[in-house]
Amino acid sequence: MNSVTAGQEPIEVAWFSALCDDDYEFLGVPDPTLQSSWDHCASIVTAADRHGYDNVLLPSGYALGIDNAAFAAAIATRTEQIRLLLAIRMGEFVAPQVVRQAATLQQIAAGRLTINIISSDLPGETMASEPRYRRSTEYMHVIRELLDGRPVDFHGEFLDLTLDPPRIAVEGSGCPPYYFGGLSEAARECAARAADVFLMWPDVVSGVRRVKADMDARAAAYGRTLAYGWRSHVIVRETEDEARAAARRLLSKLDDATGAEIRARSLDSKSAGVARQAELRDGADEEGYASRHLWTGVGRARSGAGAAIVGDPDQVRDTIGELAKAGMSAFILSGYPHLAECDLFARYVLPDLNHGRLEIEPQPVVLNS
Questions:
Q1: Mean pLDDT of residues grouped by 10 in the chain (369 residues)?
Q2: Which runs of E-coded beta strand occur in the chain?
Q3: Closest Cα partner for 319 from 203, 223, 186?
Q4: Contacts from 210-213 at CB under 8 Å and sequence distance 24+?
Q5: What structural domains does the chain harbor?
Q6: Fewer CB in a 10 Å sphere around the end CB: N or C, the chain?
């Protein structure tokens, strides 16, 4: 085992399913064979399962790609050990629907479901950030109570319901942990009150430590603790020169106008987290490196997580190990094309990481300070 990870607590290593039309050989150049579809996305997830990844993110977007809940139900029957990190957009559902759907998916997947909370608008509508996150906090409370088999008698700002849990929830395995990310003040407060795993997009290590310290203090004020996760891309090759060449090749057919159009498609394109990714990109060197192994070029044609860990196997392992020492215990990785990079990371890095499923006890949601 690599010395960077030996002796540390196991980290969870997850891959990404590219459900939202986010797969390319060359960024910005659509490839019909890599578009979101059952066959293509299933090939990524079954490969990740076969390679021994611990979890896989199933993202969701209204306009982009196939539906992730329908996909999760189907892929659960085609996989054996990998957990399914289902993104749920709070603006698109009502709480009882989410409860029944999640409990059903838990049954199909034999308890392998985890949940990525997205504090979204309803497509076609816009809600200001602060009330949107307050709404998410209420939803997270009600969903957790019902999935844990408890009745709710809740009368809040956005939800007003008195409801017993459905039978399938009472007989199920309880509410999965909530993975949640966001850098705005409202997002951080929501996470401190309601999340179990706080996800960060790429940043330099000093930035990661600052955010973690702030979130530790916020959670402690509510009598809670958080685990932390890192979401980024990765490019690993036998040598650093080959990895950097692969990064350059990925951008070799991208023009700035196409990149800007791709970034603007995302429903989170104006969030605080996206702004931080742009800041990181603006401060990078002429090749796009914010630090030696953190390359921001991906963000030229992608909203959301906009940087990649780039290097040879030892360098990528060392970078992950440094982030683990900074407090990251879950890593959600991806690369372009996603299936090919899934195979490369599994060949060069995954066997030498001390990894396993992230085992945490979900905590109650705190609605009032």
A1: 59 97 92 96 98 97 90 98 97 93 97 96 88 96 97 96 95 94 94 98 93 98 98 97 97 82 61 76 84 90 84 98 97 98 98 96 87
A2: 12-16, 55-58, 83-89, 113-118, 152-155, 160-163, 178-181, 197-200, 227-236, 289-291, 294-295, 308-311, 330-334
A3: 203
A4: 211/183, 212/326, 212/327
A5: 12-242+307-352 (3.20.20.30)
A6: C
Q: How far apart are CA 57 and CA 55, in angstroms?
A: 7
Q: CA-CA distance, 288 to 252, in Å (whole number)? A: 13
Predicted pLDDT at 61 = 85
Q: Are 154 and 217 in contact (CB under 8 A)?
A: no
In angstroms, rounded to a whole number, what is the distance separating the alpha carbons of residues 78 and 70? Answer: 13
Residue 210 Cα to chain centre, angstroms: 20
Check residue 2 and give its pLDDT: 43
- Which of 147, 141, 137 minimizes the C-alpha distance to 104? 147
Give DSSP secondary structure letters for 29-59.
Answer: ---GGGSS-HHHHHHHHHHHHHHT-SEEEE-
Q: Are 117 and 178 in contact (CB under 8 A)?
A: yes
In contact, 83 and 330? CB cutoff 8 Å: no
pLDDT, position 210: 96
Nearest C-alpha neighbor of 369 from the set 200, 152, 211, 137: 137
Q: Give the Å distances, CA to CA, from 83 to 46, 74, 229, 251.
A: 11, 14, 15, 32
In contact, 305 and 200? CB cutoff 8 Å? no
Q: How far apart, in Å, do the first and last CA atoms of the chain sit?
A: 44
DSSP of 140-185 = HHHHHHHHTT--EEEE-SS-EEEEPPPHHHHTS--PPPEEEE--SH
